[in-house]
Amino acid sequence: MPSRPTRASIPLVLASASPRRAELLAGEGIEFDRCPADIDESMLLGERPDEYVRRLAETKARAGWRPGTRSLGADTIVVLGGEVLGKPRDEADARRMLRSLSGQSHSVLTGVAVFDGEAAESTCEETRVWFRTLSDREINDYVASDEPMDKAGAYGIQGEAGRFVERIDGSYANVVGLPVEVAVAMLR
After folding, report:
1. CB within 8 A of 148, min separation 6: which ones?
2. Which domain range does residue 80 map to?
3. Is residue 31 a part of any domain in this protein?
4. How many independent structural domains does the chain possess?
5. Would residue 2 count as lying in a domain?
6. Residue 33 annotated among the catalytic residues of the structure
7. pLDDT digits (tens, 9 = 90+) for 99-118
8. Which member of 38, 50, 75, 150 is catalytic?
9. What is the pLDDT of residues 75-94, one digit of tens each?
10. What pTM was estimated for this model as a whole?
């Protein structure tokens, strides 16, 4: 009698276009195919930030799923004083976000979901990040680098903006875009 495939042996689909998420998973030795999910990422009226990222992660996981696979979806946001900072619309928006983060602490929330075709499991991971005070020149130079344009909160901790960070409390990988330790545990 043939043995049933174990959960870990079922092919994985990463429902994300993020090169950072792909690098984090590959760094754990996890094999996967990519099927970026194109979904509406609008926040619902009255939705809390943690509910928002979990909903988006689950929606992405469901959108990326194919028969015979498991799908991993994720979404990351920055929250400062109750305001959700997603990806900047343009350079002016990126400068606004970075000015608001300057000298402040904020939360980075990532929703993670795994969908197997029947049920979805999801969670939300939070990391606290403290920025030092930034000069206008630093902000302008960073925005001119184009690095902040596809990142929640207009910064990438793994890039040039790493020098803006005074400290973090929680998962560094979460700030990059995927709390890999949580994702790996969910995939087991």
Report:
1. 88, 94, 97, 98, 142, 154, 155, 156, 161
2. 7-187
3. yes
4. 1
5. no
6. no
7. 999 999 999 999 999 999 99
8. 75
9. 999 999 999 999 999 999 99
10. 0.91
